[in-house]
Amino acid sequence: MATVTLTAENFDEVAQGDGIVLVDFWAEWCGPCKRFAPVFEKSAGKHEDIVFGKVDTEAQQELSERFGIASIPTLMAIRDGVIVFAEPGALPESVLENVIEQVRALDMEDVHRRAES
User: Fold this and answer.
1) Is 105 exposed, middle or buried (0-12, 13-18, 19+ CB in 10 A)?
2) Per the database record, which ranges form the Thioredoxin domain (predicted)?
3) Could you tell me if 51 and 103 are in contact, meaning their C-beta atoms sit under 8 angstroms apart?
4) 3-state DSSP call for residue 3?
5) Which are the contacts of 57, defined by CB distance < 8 A and separation ≥ 6?
6) 46-70, pLDDT tens digit by residue?
7) What is the DSSP secondary-structure string of 37-86?
8) DSSP percent split of the chain into helix, strand, coil, nearest 5
9) Cis? peptide before 88, omega within 30° of 0
10) Interhelix angle 93-105/31-46, nearest 10 degrees
11) Model-level pTM greater than 0.85?
12) What secondary structure letter does DSSP report for 19?
């Protein structure tokens, strides 16, 4: 699956659905972002059931501010509308795959219970 460009207009619609959404916050001028992009794209090709979205922090400053993005690239994982992971840094492929495995393995009933308390 190709990556999806996320904007202030479509972010909530994409992120609040069921399933997993991985979001790459990036900018054109960012060297580590450019190194992470092929890793993110490759993973998108392997996981057809996951939405891989990209937020250009320069074009979408409102989203960057909303999520407190202070360092890029930042990877955010959302599952069933809940942010379950957010870390800055360009991840190697093996670490990205590990994050995906962990997000898939989450007990979402437990996550929702903890979010409510």
Assistant:
1) exposed
2) 1-105
3) no
4) coil
5) 25, 26, 27, 63, 64, 69, 72
6) 999 999 999 999 999 999 999 999 9
7) HHHHHHHHHH-TTSEEEEEETTTTHHHHHHTT--SSSEEEEEETTEEEEE
8) 40, 25, 35
9) no
10) 50
11) yes
12) S
Query: Tokens 């979408």 identify what position?
Result: 60
Sign for the pseudo-dihedral over CA of 4, 9, 13, 15: positive
47: tokens are: 């996981």
Q: What is the mean pLDDT of residues 63-86?
A: 95
Identify the band that residue 91 occupies on the pLDDT scale cut at 50, 70 and 90: very high
- Could you list the active site residues? 30, 33
- A 10 A CB-CB count for 92 gives 12
Q: Are 91 and 75 in contact (CB under 8 A)?
A: yes
Q: Exposed/middle/buried for 55, CB within 10 Å: 0-12, 13-18, 19+?
A: buried
